[in-house]
Amino acid sequence: MLNTALAVVKNGKIETIEHIALSEGQKVLVTLLPDDATFWQEVSQQTLKRIWDNKEDDVYAQLDVAKRREHVAQLKNSFQKMSRDMGPRKWTREDLHAR
Fold it and tell me: CA 33 → CA 14, 29, 42, 50, 62, distances in Å?
């Protein structure tokens, strides 16, 4: 099983940020990362693009504005139907914490 761990170089030795149990002589793969923030921004951007650019979400982009408004109105209507009037609030936040 492959594990990825973040590490730093201290006094010429590679030290993992979190404790990881390693066997003596265990082989590891070390990837050197650039120090600049641009690297992390690019990696994050690639991940976000992979998550957000997908065919499943395209159906929402194809809906026209009127359809979107209709969907929002239907959602609001369903929330109103499901909500219940519980009368005036007679309790305080402190009452809830006391329970």
Answer: 13, 13, 12, 21, 40
